[in-house]
């Protein structure tokens, strides 16, 4: 039987489900009223044990919720990772940059701790809590301190233009004129979890639906529920198969070696699998993110039955594809 190569490059620490914002459609339903948070010691011990178990680890990501809520503990954890030789990344809504002086103070601490990269999430839902000007302040301070930054903007609604407005800021325009800009900006497809909210993406236009999932077997995730997850996809908390047990059992991540469905998702992507299984157009047309397809694949009773009865027809083709991908490197 085929065995997958499990050599993850990344540990992703979902430090807390608490957040300074409460964006509609947040995938973990984070908000200021949620308390679930990993402690400093729990995070520290997990990073040490997971990186020992998987020597292939190179990058440690701190995310949430809002990881900056950990304040000094976050800076201490980044310093520890830097001393251990890892690259680090924080994912934040940038609430800490409301005032430029404070933003500079945070950036100084990030530089002192050796942070490798900062990712900022923003867009029309986020900006109800963290304003456009706060994001501009963060960009300014991060550029001054030379911290490589990626700003991810939600797909705009028909009435919003957060991406255009950010792109038009003089500080961003000047940076983009340089040969190697210190800031990148990208648009992310925004998934509507609450059906009352507006759909913000033309149906079936998302190219990521055509590819396999890079996250599987590459990112060891630990959650504020003190559990290990197989990926940090936006629907992972709704998919039981992504839960790999208590955070003390880091070896469970490596036990996925013969999980054919995960190998298949990694190779062709959940959306393409749904197509192979003959999912109806009605089901397919509602999907604009690979993780939505993944949730349907694991949770839709009809699809699950077709999967169980027919997966064996796909084993040889998928495993051949894996071997070909390995040969191409
Ligand atoms: S900022 Fe991010 S984590 Fe916080 S509520 Fe919004 S989407 Fe969720
Ligand atoms: S597609 Fe599935 S396996 Fe991949 S990140 Fe999304 S939920 Fe996780």
From TrEMBL:
One of its GO terms (molecular function) is iron-sulfur cluster binding. Keywords: Iron, Iron-sulfur, Metal-binding, S-adenosyl-L-methionine. Coiled coil: none annotated. It comes from the Bacteria. Gene3D superfamilies: Aldolase class I (3.20.20.70). Its cofactor is [4Fe-4S] cluster. Residues 5-214 form the Radical SAM core domain. This is Radical SAM protein. It comes from Vibrio tetraodonis subsp. pristinus.
